[in-house]
Amino acid sequence: MRISHKYRFIFISKPRCASTTIRNILDPFSDITSSATPPFHHHATALELKLYFDRTGWNWKDYFVFTTVRNPWDMIVSYYIRFKPDVNGLYNFEKERDGCIYMPDNPASFKEWVLSAKTYHRVLFSNETFQKNVWVDGFSKLTLANTVNDHNGNSLANKVLKVESLDNTLSGTLQELGILITPKIVRMNTTGRIGYRAYFDDETRRIIEKEFISDIKFGHYTF
User: Based on the structure, what is the number of domains in the chain?
Assistant: First the structure.
């Protein structure tokens, strides 16, 4: 997450979607950088930030809001390798959850994780009510819809950039903001691995296809 009052942008940082790379590029132009805690969490959603803007009296519509999206099958493999879920579904950024201690020496297989994964929402709008700090079955936290939509399902973003074509699109987006640089895109926090298709069987492929329908439709992604 990055916010600039001078250049009037909000960058929404979608996990495992070149977010660290773009945050670093935007740092010199940002008035607010992110941290591990709300309201300016590294991966705060557009809805979270919009609620904060409303409370603060900042006009959301005065800002250019953008984020990134990535082939979800590829992204999920990257998430799995980066955060190393254990057999209880805990990630390496957790010490414990629900009485379970993170066990790095007892990892979940990729399929075990996909079938039983939970993701954490700091703010979740469900059944016409807001919930805070909840773990939800599946991968809803990581979807494009959750990243950019408001509580009515309408996008709060002005632009979504595909990670796969970032070399060709980020420079133009920065120029739209009045940032006249040619960004040097250095991929950060990458995971060296074999191709993502090798991790999936038909069951896990379909699970990701169902969960990430917003990402797939936007990016015209195929397995």
Answer: 1
